[in-house]
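Exercise 7.
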Amino acid sequence: MHIVWLILKIIGAILGGLLGLLLLLLLLVIFVPIRYKIRLKVDKSVETDSYISWLLHIVHISIQYHEKQMKYCLRIFGIPVRKNKKENDKKAGKNKQRRKPSEKSAKQKKHTQSHVEKKQAKAETAKRTQSDAKANKTVQKTKEKANEKAKKSTASNKTVSEKRGTKYTEKGKDKKGFHPIQKIKSLIHVIREKVHHIPLICIKIKNRIIKLNQKKKKVLAFVKDEGTRSTIKKFIKRTFEILKYIAPTKLRGYIRYGTGDPCQTGQILGIISILRAYFNTKISIYPVFEEKIIEADLTAHGRMRVFRFLKVGGSLYFDKEVKKFIADGKQLKEELNG
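Solution. The predicted structure, written as tokens, is:
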């Protein structure tokens, strides 16, 4: 009994340790921030270097765009786990070049075997050609006999068809005079049917207009409702909060620009100066009033926690007005489709 109790204690300790590790990982994912760094360089071409890291660079993602080519790499504990296809293809090409010398010896063996097999195949093909030539001669004789019979039958059929053709032409001449009258009658019949269908088409159009007006009223009633307006305001507020939270905490670099028009360049400078004051950035602006040019070298640093996203999502999910808004939206969708 004592041994069983010890085994149960060991199993319980192992399960407790595993649960503790899972809880620790969950807390790390929720509270440890994800950091990012983005560098943008503009000079005749656009180049970007982006880096995303988590938990002292245990997980590290790098995305680079140079000379119209994108490269990415995912590293866990410094070991590359996933790369873009081009780099993998280069490695595969190097491995193929290493395998080539061993493949050459195998090819030589295959060449000697294939030479012997070719000689055997030639002897077999010569025998087959002789037998095929005899068979072809018999087939040609039978075809010649069949062609002679076919010629005789076609000659007899022509005489019969010529006699029948004279009869049908005489009958056709009598019927030609009635074609215009029949066409007029068919046109009158079609016009009458279309005139009869006009009232039904008008009723259908009227019913569709009534249905569209009803749907329009339902949509307007849903939009004008105070609950929907308040929920839409909440969604907009929360989205701006998230965007502000995701925005970089540090932004440095310089921008050198010019449109060629001094007036337009001055207007852009005014807008940029307002944005600089609002976002509290350390970006140097160098306007060029006489040339048309754009150069930039910017670096942005930022971080974000999963906890903030869960907090915003939870506040919206458990809100009564949001739940009512979702339920009313589903009901409206069913009514419009029905």
